[in-house]
Write a structure and sequence with these properties.
By secondary structure, the protein is an alpha/beta fold. It is built from eleven helices and 14 strands.
């Protein structure tokens, strides 16, 4: 497995999507909303034109949905673009990343030529962020990148913890899954020391379009907007985003689905022998099993994809991540796990706060 490989690997060598039941990518299983589909259909012929470089309509929609001043917005070709854009522009002396976490944080830091320190959290504490230990390691020259909720662990650092870190170093907070949780966003805390980035592709099931935004200090927003491709958000992504952000019914149905299905799925997973289930906060759950590699391979033979966590820093081949999908799909995965005899003891945890 490559160091920075991701979930959603459903394509064959010819680039054709296979017939997979994909639990490896954390995408809203409700799929495209009717409003998004209508917006794409109605605007398809508009791709003969350049997209609006100011994306004025989309910025207005973001302001209405999230109460974010346009002067603080940076629009993105997916949230991952922000890590590269920010780190190439700021070039912090060192990037400190609590792990396990999304691999693009480290990849972007190394691409920008930054020194990288990985702060390993402890499985025995459900990978909770030890802010006191982390503060002992960071300096004013550092940039700390934190997922909230964190992928793949589901941990959800509090606003107070983010503010404590920001008192010492710059903090980049990734809230790509925040709309799947009941926790309030920290977008309003954006400042010279705190930047917040959010994906719209997960919650609105449009990863193929790529769409996200960041909320940052006004001066930084001006700098980053001058640094990026002026047409980084394409025409259809802008139209889909406007439609999505107005669809309160879709968001309501998503929250209702997850409130029910998360509880059901986790309770059933806990009944499987040998499987350690880490508490989820969003639409995915981290699992540990001594024979995770065998389970992964066995499920692949049944055309079911989980996310192997073997290439996550701070984890090993005994960890898997599963998206939470529809009841029918979740039951199919649960049955397949039972058929593969999920029964083995858990492994050992990492030492708290160890720096790699």
């Amino acid at each position: 497995m490559e160091q920075y490989e991701h979930g959603g690997q459903i394509y064959d060598a010819a680039g054709k999507a296979g017939d997979w039941l994909d639990f490896s990518a954390n995408i809203n299983p409700l799929g495209l909303s009717d409003k998004i589909l209508a917006a794409l259909t109605e605007n398809l012929r508009g791709v003969v034109n350049y997209p609006d470089p100011q994306a004025a309509e989309l910025k207005c929609a973001l302001n209405r949905r999230y109460a974010v001043p346009e002067k603080n917005l940076v629009l993105l070709n997916g949230a991952a673009e922000f890590f590269y854009l920010y780190l190439n522009a700021i070039r912090p002396a060192r990037v400190v990343i609590p792990v396990p976490s999304f691999s693009e944080y480290e990849r972007a830091a190394r691409a920008a030529g930054c020194a990288v320190k990985l702060f390993v959290t402890e499985a025995a504490e459900n990978f909770a962020l030890n802010v006191d230990a982390l503060l002992d390691e960071v300096t004013p020259a550092d940039c700390v990148i934190i997922g909230r909720p964190n992928n793949p662990t589901g941990t959800l650092p509090t606003p107070e913890e983010i503010l404590r870190l920001a008192a010492v170093s710059s903090v980049l907070v990734d809230e790509s899954f925040i709309d799947f949780t009941s926790a309030p966003s920290i977008r309003k805390l954006a400042s010279e020391k705190i930047s917040v980035v959010q994906s719209l592709t997960k919650i609105f099931a449009i990863p193929g379009l790529r769409l996200g935004f960041a909320v940052v200090d006004e001066n930084l927003a001006r700098r980053l907007n001058l640094s990026k491709d002026v047409w980084n958000v394409n025409f259809l992504a802008q139209k889909a985003g406007v439609a999505a952000l107005s669809d309160e019914d879709f968001l309501r149905r998503t929250r209702s689905w997850l409130a029910t299905e998360q509880k059901f799925f986790v309770e059933r997973l806990k009944n499987l022998r040998g499987l350690k289930v880490f508490p989820p906060t969003a639409n995915f759950v981290l699992l540990k099993h001594a024979r995770a590699g065998e389970l992964f391979s066995g499920l692949r033979r049944e055309k079911i994809l989980l996310r192997s966590c073997a290439n996550f820093a701070g984890l090993d081949g005994s960890y898997l991540r599963s998206a939470i999908r529809s009841r029918e799909e979740n039951l199919r995965l649960l049955a397949a796990l039972e058929n593969n005899e999920a029964s083995a003891p858990c492994g050992q945890a990492y030492k708290r706060g160890r720096l790699l």
